[in-house]
Amino acid sequence: MKNKFLYLLIVIPLIVAACGQAAGSPTNTSAAPRTLTVMTHDSFAASKSVISAFESANNVKVQFIRSGDAGTALNKAILSKNNPFADVFYGVDNTFLSRSLAEDIFQPYNSPVLVDIPDQYKLDQQNRALPVDWGDVCLNFDKLYFSENNLQPPQNLEDLLKPEYKNMLVVENPATSSPGLAFLLTTIGHFGTDKYLDYWQGLVGNNARVVNDWDTAYYTYFSRYGGDRPIVVSYNSSPPFEVLGAQPPLAAPQTEAITSDGSCFRQIEFVGILRGTKNQDLAEKWVDFMLSTTFQEDMPLQMYVFPVNPNAKLNETFQKFLTIPENPAYVSSQDIAVNREAWINAWTETVLR
């Protein structure tokens, strides 16, 4: 009897425990979070609460590596492709997409969320680079400057060649800057491959200033922030940003984007899983997350680009102050792939030497 009693004391708790596990109780709630490394350009931003939601749902810590402007970040991803230091890369756009695909840094991933994304944003049929956002690179001007100087703001690209706009424009170098390359493509799409360099010679003659990146152009040389240049290559999202980020608050933007026909270029940004990742499952979940409405609705308020997922709702400030060009300049991704380096080299010879 004593041995039978001891047997029941041992066996019954084991049976109860086994039943509890079969009913769905967690078996490993104390596992340490894994780390997912996401490489981005310097302009990447997301709300802490949004990132935390992803981390909590997947028991993961997301580590971000900001790696310069889009072109610089892509160069780093290519140089490290045989031994990648990240699992995912976000920030390559349609001006650099062909290079990233030619270098084969991404592996295909057919995210289930892609069914919600319009085809116009899907530029890689193999789904190595998946679209996340879009935005228009446009000329922006400081409204207060032109008002105080009783001068009509420029209305199109051609206006920038007029004498009254001499010493007013700051642009980014297309060899080092994504918006700089987008603006170069704007001029190619608008004037054609046979005349765009003539246009740039005119800008040089009007003393346009060239800097390496958007931050320097906008926050150092643009007159809105204390510089001496009232016209800058920026984004159509910049005026709404001026309202959202203003302290004290503004009722309306103090800058305006020029969105006349052929004066802007539409950028699409992509995310991809880097070949060689050891966290394939987490990388796929992160890509799905970036395409989800949770991330897509947060994105415009953080990076001032716009969702590719049509189910994401846009903030009312963007709805009120965003101007979308009806006819942006167009250069096909195929032409960019074939000619990008030649166009940049020709621009460099014309503008910098």
CATH architectural name of the largest domain: 3-Layer(aba) Sandwich
> What share of residues are in beta strands?
15-25%
Sheet with the most strands, sense and barrel status: 11 strands, mixed
Q: Runs with pLDDT <50, length 5+?
A: 1-29
CATH topology of the largest domain: D-Maltodextrin-Binding Protein, domain 2
Number of strands: 11
* Rg over alpha carbons: 25 Å
- What is the count of DSSP helices, taking H or I runs of 4+ residues? 13
The amount of helix comes to: 25-40%
Report the CATH C-level class of the largest domain: Alpha Beta
CA-to-CA gap between the ends? 101 Å
Order of helices and strands: HEHEHEHEEHEHHEHEHEEHHEHH
The total domain count is 2
Shape: globular
Which helices and strands appear, and what pairs or packs with what?
Blueprint: H1 2-22, E1 34-40, H2 48-58, E2 60-66, H3 70-79, E3 88-93, H4 97-102, E4 106-107, E5 130-142, H5 143-148, E6 169-172, H6 178-191, H7 196-205, E7 209-211, H8 214-221, E8 231-235, H9 238-244, E9 255-258, E10 265-274, H10 280-291, H11 293-303, E11 306-307, H12 316-321, H13 333-351
Parallel strand pairs: 1-2, 1-3, 6-7, 6-8
Antiparallel strand pairs: 3-10, 4-10, 5-8, 5-9, 5-10, 5-11
Please describe what this structure looks like.
With 353 residues, this protein is an alpha/beta fold. The chain is 40% helix and 18% strand. The chain has helices at residues 2-22, 48-58, 70-79, 97-102, 143-148, 178-191, 196-205, 214-221, 238-244, 280-291, 293-303, 316-321, 333-351, and strands at 34-40, 60-66, 88-93, 106-107, 130-142, 169-172, 209-211, 231-235, 255-258, 265-274, 306-307. Strands 1, 2, 3, 4, 5, 6, 7, 8, 9, 10 and 11 form an eleven-stranded mixed β-sheet that branches. The radius of gyration is 25 Å and the shape is globular. The N and C termini lie far apart (101 Å). Mean pLDDT is 90; it is low at 1-29.
